Amino acid sequence: MKAKTTHILFDCDNTLVLSEVLAFDACGELASEILEKQGISEKYTGPQLMSEFVGQNFRGMVNSLQQKHNFQLPEDEMNKYVSLEEDRVISKLEEKLEPCDGVNEQLEKLAKSGKYTFAVVSSSAHRRVMASLAKAGQMSYFSSERVFSAATSLEKPTSKPDPAIYLHACERLGVAPMQCVAVEDSKSGALSAIRAGIPVIAYVGSYETDEKREEMSKSLKDLGAAVVMREWSEFESCLETIGAA
User: Is there a smaller number of Cβ atoms within 10 Å at the N or the C end of the chain?
Assistant: First the structure.
């Protein structure tokens, strides 16, 4: 039987806010610049990066590109690019970002119930997450101290599917993983939470086509997600399904 749920841990990108397309456009441009400086002619568009690396932060993407194309950036150069990517993405988010459909209404309803503590657990940098929450009108639900970033909150930066950021969040919040529920939209995010021992609600509403939503529903269930949520209006019933309400 599941332990009483006291904390809901939300992924940010394409779970709370529609940020991935905007962010990957910026990442594609910068990734192509990095490869060009390495003498590699291949270029990446935002959709190409998104297809390969959704759920990872930029450091994780660049590490994957280094393995794929057999090059190695010095740590100081990697840090420079990570900082530059953050600036470019935040600029795009502050201009165009919107919340996921229906999420703000659910956050308001959950907050009024007083049943749960909210936190954000993201691969993205803390500053980017805070900019996203501000633009989406969600700042009142998440204090800065309850926003955890695999890119900037850990002593050694990492990225989902490494469970380190979820384990870190649970430790800082003083809560056992089984007292939490995670909401994730990607394979890497779902795996991160599952490996940390946290039940996962898989949100597929941010995928643009019925075909992709069905594909991701199956993939995330096969990975071990407890239940699939197609719209935010289903959130309370999903909590009930996994015995977390």
Answer: N
